[in-house]
Amino acid sequence: MSATLTINGLTRWYPGTGTPTLDAIDLTVPAAGCAALLGPSGSGKSTALRLVAGLDTPDAGEVLIDGRSVAGIPPERRHTVLVFQSPRLFPHLSVLDNVAFPLAVAGAPRGKARDDATQFLDLVGLTSLAHRRPATLSGGQEQRVALARALAARPDVLLLDEPFSALDPTVRSEMHTLLVELRAAVEPTILLVTHDQNEAAVLADTVAVLLDGRIAQHDRIDRLYTRPDSLAVQGFLGGRNAVAGQVADGAHHSALGPLELPADTVILEGAATLVVRQEAIGLVPPSDPRADLVGVVSAVSARGPRAQVEVTVTGVSLIAESGPGERFEPGDRVGMVLPLDQRHAVPAHGVGVRPQDEAVAAGPHAAVRAVPGDG
Predict the structure, then answer these.
(1) Does the reported pTM lie above 0.70?
(2) What's the pLDDT tens digit per position in 275-315?
(3) DSSP 129
(4) Do the Cβ atoms of 190 and 158 come closer than 8 Å?
């Protein structure tokens, strides 16, 4: 029930558009793996799923399942199943018969189809609702039925097009837990489309950031946050700190002074932008020996139990986050701790400094820069 999905150079132009919706994207999802396509609206995420499912035809490139091209193979014979945001259940069928439907279409006798469907209903925790109609279900229950129906078809690749985005946060979290459990139970290969960074982090082994029809970076979510290949990726993922300067002698040099870079990276010397996630920066008393920098708080913005704290250091504004119970006011002098392993330099040509044993991938997009402070 799993196969390796390979996308090579997949391109799609729509009539009347000046640029391709998808521009030669490459992506591999190993058997039983889960990759997420993460990007803003209009970035081409759903188009990619439609091309894999066979609901649209690429202008260039190919889709392979276990190394075999599916070009020209109709959707119903690709052994892929696409689950949409809307469950699209058959209103006139019971929950059990909705799940049994793909089995019946495949030629299974009604009794056998229902027996198999019951097993998948059990996996999603809805056996007790087998004889209900979809109209009597909650949104989360409907989506559970949709997942059970998709898995009952035993696809080689399960395609999920933002299936949980219409659910409220509590139910969405429950669905995330369910999908993790389903992965452990039946090991499907999954390609997930989402614009929710938390969802991608919870569900996917790797995340491909899709910007303007191109994959800007494909990596683990933790590396996307701390080792972005470009300022485009850094900005899309909410990174607020980007300081222009130069890399030389294993350090980044800027108005902040020299800041050492991690020793396990290949240092590409020259113009580069220092990036450090705001969540990674610690705020300490200015006299604390751990402080890498000392500055003055210029603004504080509430963010639920935490707060976003803007600190001006030698004319450069940096953003940090305070923890629950910490309180800062404009005008306070503070120290800033920038953990060495959280520092990263993005060279001017857009490919970040990477560990020695990993490949690099670049992607152009809008830049994010630090803004001058007041003093």
Answers:
(1) yes
(2) 999 999 999 999 999 999 999 999 999 888 889 999 999 99
(3) G
(4) yes
Q: CB of 209 within 8 A of CB of 237? A: yes
Q: Are 224 and 363 in contact (CB under 8 A)?
A: no
pLDDT value, residue 304: 80
User: Residue 275 forms beta bridges with which residues?
Assistant: 242, 344
| List of residues 6+ apart from 317 with CB closer than 8 A | 298, 310, 311, 370, 371, 372, 373
Question: What does the CA dihedral 243, 248, 251, 254 come to, rounded to 10 degrees?
Answer: -30
Structural fold of domain 5-218: Rossmann fold (3.40.50)
The CATH number for 241-347, chosen from 1.10.580.10, 3.40.190.10, 2.40.50.140, 2.60.120.280, is: 2.40.50.140
Q: How many whole angstroms from its chain centre is CA 269? A: 30
And the tokens for 340? 């060495």
For residue 306, the cross-strand partners are 303
Of 52, 38, 109, 57, the residue nearest 83 (C-alpha): 52
Report how far residue 289's alpha carbon sits from residue 166's, in angstroms, rounded to the nearest whole number: 48
Among candidate residues 368, 270, 251, the one with its CA nearest the CA of residue 319 = 368
* Alpha helix stretches (DSSP H) within the chain: 45-53, 95-105, 110-123, 139-152, 169-186, 197-203, 221-226, 231-236
The tokens of 217 are what?
């970076």
Cα 173-175-176 angle, rounded to 5 deg: 65
